[in-house]
Amino acid sequence: MQTSKFLAEASLGAWLDELAAKAELIVPKRDGNAVVFGPYDPDVPVELSQEATAPPKSIVFPPCEELMHFTQGKDPEDPTKPLLQLEETMPSGRKVVFGARPCGARGFTIFDPVFGSGEIRDPYYEARRADTAFITLACAESGAACFCHWVGSGPADATGSDVLLIPVEGGYVAEAITEKGAELVASSLLTEADANADAVEAFRKKVTEALEPAPALDAAPESLLAIFDDMDFWGAISSKCISCGACTYLCPTCYCFNFTDESRGMEGKRLRTWDNCMSFQFTQEASGHNPRPTKGHRLKNRVGHKFSYYPGLHEGAFACCGCGRCIKSCPAGVDIREIVLAAMAHAKSAGKEQAHD
Amino acid sequence: MQPLEDIKTKIREALPELECVIGWEKSWTPLTATPLFMRAPEDVDRLIWGPFNVNNPATYLTGFKGKKIGILVKGCDSRSVVQLLQENLVKREDLTIFGLPCKGVLDVSKVVAKIGDPGMVKSAELNGDVLQVATNKGATDIPFSEVMADKCVACQYHNAIISDHFAGDPLPPSMKPDPAEEQLAALAALAPAELFEHWAGVMDKCIRCYACRNACPMCVCRDHCIAQSRDPHWISQEHTIRDKIMFQMIHALHLAGRCTECGECQRACPVDIPILALRKKLNRVVKETFDYQAGIDSKATPPLFTFQVEEANINERGW
Fold first, then answer.
1. What gap in Å lies between CA B295 and CA B287, rounded to an integer?
2. Are residues B291 and B181 in the same domain?
3. B113 with B192, same domain?
4. How much is the pLDDT for A250?
């Protein structure tokens, strides 16, 4: 299923207007130094020159959502009988996310096996996921924090996108990847793209060749398990981490959440909010015991989950799309690439030592 | 740079007695250094000094409670150390403090505003008074004065206030006016409703990651913060501006007269919210009311840690 169309730079605005008429259109916009996704406004420029500071995660998986509304009361006929009325708040409405980079859209393919398959499915996630389409822009250049090609992706990876835009002279080639995508490019503003086939090929070649060679991470899952109990290693490597949630909240693949009830009088709501494993409260138990009492334990979990436990459960796929936001936005300069490589090297040398014993 | 080499020698000498010495090393981007925890003598080779050493290493001190540790500080960092000593949160005998004179550090946000995506920076170097930055789009020369952190412009403490080993010639206080005054005056000129609108507007994009809190050297409740407590339940997990502002207010009030204005809260914010102004404003109130500045005198008692039956500048009864 792939059709390619050409979109002239000059027609971009008109196409966005068209898309906005059909669905809620969400685009990256500049806000000071940050680039954040928000509702499309024809009078505000769409910021495509750089990867957005925050990924489009919140559109399908909001930072906070009301799952249900509840009202408590008493049966007037039998006052000893409490009444509880529940009303679920299911999301609805078509959305189109325009201008995410491949890593941002690919993040949801990590969510899907967790929320949208198997016996236990998440109807809230599934509803938003089904109603949201992604028109993604391929990256012409990779930054110093980018490492998508370490984790099986690349600057023009279409995985998770419905339409992939490849920048070419005078505009973009819009490749429809899914049926949803084919519908989106079926506009009279988009024309025949055959003449641009070579340019697309050249683009793919150029962005791939520009990448630094990626180290093999095949040994990462096993290495991380092998050094699970080595808290000296995790203590030292987490020294500079300040244990905040910037990395997890900006991560396109972090999906942990928490539930809280907020009540006022006899009414209330059940909320689902993002949680983050770098927070002390993340695994704190009601007894007061915390199996992850230090930031070393917590950082181990974050890296371990992405590069060992998740792949163990989901056919070897890393729960990381290599966007580098955790590196770029970390106030302390923690670099997850360094940690994974150090863990692999440490497991190797520890293994050798054991062999000598 | 001779003073840096001298201080490296001092660190290597002191290291055997210490858990580690905190400093800075090169990071993934030439625009910022990253904290370095020197545990072995060879780690000391990676130590760097200069305008990219923006992080405040004092943030890590309370995490090493009960251990002997070393710390290399800029003048502003040393104020945080002094304040921690004043509050009895670290022990002087556990600390070995190293200092070098600091000519000011970079405000990465100011650089990013000029050059765009920080991920695209290939190299950055300070040559005299000019920051030379090369990106994918080419080279740019930026006068350092344009991208220096605000706190450095009017810095009164270029040298460690407190240290066991100091190398290099101490620098005199800066004579320039504090850029913060203009910013605070602009906020003070707003009517209450406009001021609220300002804070509601800037807090909207907050992602509640608490990087501001965790980067703060004086935020010492750490794992027991009121922001994540259900009992008392002052803040909910809702993603509303009300909850976001409420946390900022709590943070700022807890720092009144304790904040050394290192700027880490604002620097750490991944979405660049200008939250330092709240702390600065409260510090000025403390200065006017109690004639006190945080982190200057390790023997002084912070004003909100004590009280006078009759405060000189507070007319309690109003008659």
1. 13
2. yes
3. no
4. 96
Span A246-250, average pLDDT: 96
The answer on B164 and B260 residing in a single domain is: no
CA distance A255 to chain B (A): 14
Q: Are residues B25 and B69 in the same domain?
A: yes
Inter-chain residue contact B119 with A51, CB threshold 8 Å:
yes
| CA of residue A147 relative to chain centroid, distance | 15
Predicted pLDDT of residue A2 = 66
Q: What is the DSSP letter of B301?
A: P
Q: Are residues B139 and B287 in the same domain?
A: no
- What's the domain range around B31? 1-104+155-176
| Contact with chain B for residue A91, Cβ under 8 A | no
> Contact at 8 Å (CB) between A284 and A293?
no
CA dist B280 → B177, B265, B277 (Å): 15, 12, 5
Does A250 lie at the interface with B, CB-CB under 8 angstroms? Answer: yes
How many domains does chain B contain in total? 3
User: Quick check: A357 pLDDT over 70?
Assistant: no
How many contacts does A have with B, using Cβ atoms within 8 A?
Answer: 140
Which residues, numbered 177 to 216 in chain A, qualify as contacts with chain B under a Cβ-Cβ cut-off of 8 Å? none
Sign of CA dihedral B4, B6, B10, B15: positive
Q: Are B53 and B105 in contact (CB under 8 A)?
A: yes
pLDDT digits (tens, 9 = 90+) for B242-292: 999 999 999 999 999 999 999 999 999 999 999 999 999 999 999 999 999
Segment holding A58, helix H or strand E: helix A57-60
